[in-house]
Design brief:
This protein has 222 residues and is α+β, with helices and mostly antiparallel strands. The chain contains 6 helices and 9 strands, in the order βαααβββββββαααβ. A 5-stranded mixed β-sheet has the order 1-4-3-2-9. A hairpin with a 5-residue loop joins strand 6 and strand 7.
Length: 222
Amino acid sequence: MEYPQDWLTENIEQSGQKQAAWRTDPARSGAGGSTGDIGTHAYNLGAFVSGLELEELAADLDSFVAGRKLDDNAHVMMRFKKKDGERAKGLLWCSQVAPGHENGLMVRVYGTKGGLEWTQKDPNYLWYTPFGEPKRLLTRAGAGSGPAAARVSRIPSGHPEGYLEGFANIYTEAARAIFAKRKGEAIDAAVTYPTIDDGMKGMAFVDACVQSSKRNGAWVKV
């Protein structure tokens, strides 16, 4: 998982830039800088796509810009809980001081049968590589994308769809759950949206990163 940006490469919070000012102020944003602002997004994406649950991590947080109170770069090693008797491991890099990157959210998943790769800047495409075979390009709402993806695809394949539609899908899924509850009906098992539990896991991730880095990258249970 990775999420690099470059917009905080300079100390723009001192110039009165509002978006930078609150994100780099621990009194307003909490203990995490880049970990809380963008690292949580990368972590949530990786956990959601893989279906894995984080068990412990070792983090190295830095504030490369002089005078900055919160981290603007983080490297995190992860150990996930065992699933089917096997344990997966992960890496996460988030940075707001990486020149050349705007919002470089990306996830890669590798296993014995193949690999997946997706990046936010090209959201309509997923690279799937079965081990020992050529790479395959799956397109949003295209052949091989599956019914779960079709549920949240709003326009035909070949037309660009991405960031804003992602929020619309979350709101729609939440609304479906609310309407079902109001009617006393069971929520469709296909309905998917972030919950309070996901938010709490994100906060636990940030806290563990901060604690680990304070202990020189020691492994910390999440």
